[in-house]
Write a structure and sequence with these properties.
34% strand; nucleotide-binding; cell shape; 7 helices; binds adenosine-5'-triphosphate; Heat_shock_70_CS; five-stranded mixed sheet; binds magnesium ion; MreB; 16 strands; 2 domains; Nucleotidyltransferase, domain 5; ATP-binding
Length: 277
């Protein structure tokens, strides 16, 4: 097939989000890695929604509908769901699969096992890829940041994802060291839920917690306080209520997660020897 008919797609199939990038158009799809499955009366399951539409259903589903994720802790947990996720994103990207030969470059976590790598390749091929190339995510991050990874300098990459946090050192085109924490942004959302329940006896959902993290999240000691009014449920009375939440509340909730990441960075620094010339 002629070169001009080949579409090269860079894909991050992540625990929280799936992102597709092309050299010509940039990011062409960015969807939550979430599928809403409905259980039929005969016991079979069918996908109702994928991506953004499925994420919007979290906390609003009936007993027959469950929200499932194709990935767990950065690795493919269900190959069929991962294929569905990729196909959905390809559709969003408007890829004309029938005319184009698709080549995927997929990021994989540094701690990925051979079985997990095979699962990614299988899902990609089932989604229509003719060629599948894998790259360690920390190297992809470094390249994306415009770093010359061939240089003989250690560069620390800290990638806080949805389900994992990776602290890596890259040098001379390779991965020198990697430490993976099995917690990322979603654990922070959970920490916010727990903290608001403790402090205000307020129950909020995971999406409100994520919104608070993104809008108020700041762990610097002297940040200008900001506040947001959120809707939740009074944990004791089980009645709807409104509560002002401040950036200090969010800082208190996130501080342990941030210290865990800083400790991991210190450990990686300690394990990596840099030679100054
Ligand atoms: N502005 C922001 N401030 C804080 N957190 C954010 C912000 N934007 C996104 N996030 C969080 O980043 C996380 C998603 O990051 P990302 O898309 O890199 O994860 P992922 O690659 O899918 O997951 P993983 O790398 O663990 O497989 C979510 O928890 C989201 O809430
Ligand atoms: Mg990631």
């Amino acid at each position: 097939m002629g070169k001009y008919l080949t579409t090269d797609l860079a894909i991050n199939l992540g625990t929280a989000n799936t992102v597709i990038y092309t050299r010509r158009q940039g990011v062409v799809a960015h969807e939550p890695s979430v599928v809403a499955m409905q259980e039929r009366l005969n016991g079979s399951r069918v996908a109702l929604h994928v991506g953004q539409a499925a994420k919007a259903m979290i906390g609003r589903t009936s007993e027959q509908v469950s929200i499932v994720r194709p990935l767990h802790e950065g690795a493919v947990a269900d190959c069929d769901l991962a294929q569905m996720m990729l196909q959905h994103c390809l559709q969003k990207a408007g890829s004309r699969k029938k005319l184009h030969s698709l080549r995927f470059v997929l990021g994989v976590p540094a701690q990925c096992t051979a079985i997990e790598r095979r699962a990614v390749i299988e899902a990609a091929r089932a989604a229509g890829a003719r060629g599948v190339y894998l790259i360690y995510e920390p190297l992809a991050v470094a390249l994306g940041e415009g770093l010359d990874i061939r240089e003989p300098y250690g560069r620390m990459i800290v990638d806080i994802g949805g389900g994992t946090t990776n602290v890596s050192v890259v040098s001379v085109g390779g991965l020198v060291y990697n430490k993976t924490l099995l917690q990322g942004g979603e654990a922070m959302d959970e920490a916010i839920i727990a903290a608001l329940k403790r402090k205000y006896h307020l129950d909020i959902g995971i999406q409100t917690a994520e919104q608070l993290k993104i809008e108020l999240g700041n762990v610097l000691p002297h940040c200008t306080p900001q506040r947001l009014q959120v809707e939740g449920t009074d944990a004791a009375a089980h009645t709807p209520c409104l509560q002002q939440v401040t950036s200090h509340d969010i800082r208190d909730a996130l501080i342990d997660s941030i210290h865990t990441i800083i400790d991991a960075m210190r450990e990686v620094m300690g394990q990596t020897t840099f030679h100054r010339i």
